[in-house]
Hints:
By secondary structure, this protein is α/β, with parallel strands linked by helices. 41% of the residues lie in helices and 14% in strands. The strands form 2 sheets. The chain has an 8-stranded mixed beta sheet with strand order 1-2-5-6-7-8-9-10, with helices on both faces. Helix 7 (165-172) packs across helix 9.
Amino acid sequence: MESMEGxxxxxMNQKISDSxxxxxxxxxxxxxxxxxxxxxFKIREDLRTRRLATVCQEAKCPNIGKCWNDETATIMxxxxxxxxxxxxxNVKTGDPQGWLDDSEPEHVAQTCYESGLKYVVLTMxxxxxxxxxxxxxxxxxxxxxxxxxxNMKVELLAGDFRGDFQALYNILLSGVDVYAHNLExxxxxxxxxxxxxxxxxxxxxxxxxxxxxxDSNSSLSGRVFTKSGLMLGLxxxxxxxxxxxxxxxxxxxxxxxxxxxxRPSKKHLSVKRWVPPEEFDLLSKEALxxxxxxxxxxxxxxxxxxxxxxxxxxxxx
Length: 317
């Protein structure tokens, strides 16, 4: 009998070979409705009032309406300037020269509380200009959120902190419920897609160390989970995707998101292929068979997609 992996690879390879040449317009499955809803507009106004940035808005996330109405939002901290220059990301790059907003922890916490959020995803720019990569500031933000509402769940989508494990430990002990760090792409494409300081092996080491630290700490084990994500459509093949999923699982990652890469501007990497929904369905089945607790795989999936559902499902297991 053909194995699940062999079957998935065969079907995926056939779909890749059958794909039509990339066209200029996006396919119909990438079309979305404009966001709406009472909770959506309230959160948007609260964020404007405190001048806080969200990746939901900055990246024009197609799921913004659904997530905000589900009382989940992704807030970007540590400024709007990243010290790295990944070729898929539209965030401004440069040298912040050590700048920090000391009022940010309080502002973020109050916004989350007054907006009635039940689950907040914090994401951050890379801050290689800071000795700890910004970890100390992240800890302050997480603790401030937990101080206003101890029941609010906090997920952090972080960089690799240059492999600084002490910075990682401090964050894991701050009160985060999910620690996420994205591989973004397969190993072969990593040097082309990500900044040279963000290596595939270093990302795996960070994820593995996070899981090891969680498992060795009784206050974290069974409560804190690790997560990672992939973008497709950059030139990867099915074997490479499955190898990457296996590499994630080898580090103990519990949650994985898989979505379609969409070019933010002509200065960024071009899309090599629009991956059809049925191929994401096959990958979802394969990922679940590898042991991931929760999998979100679809063209419009982004890192924080169904983040609250992921966590609640894992805790109920």
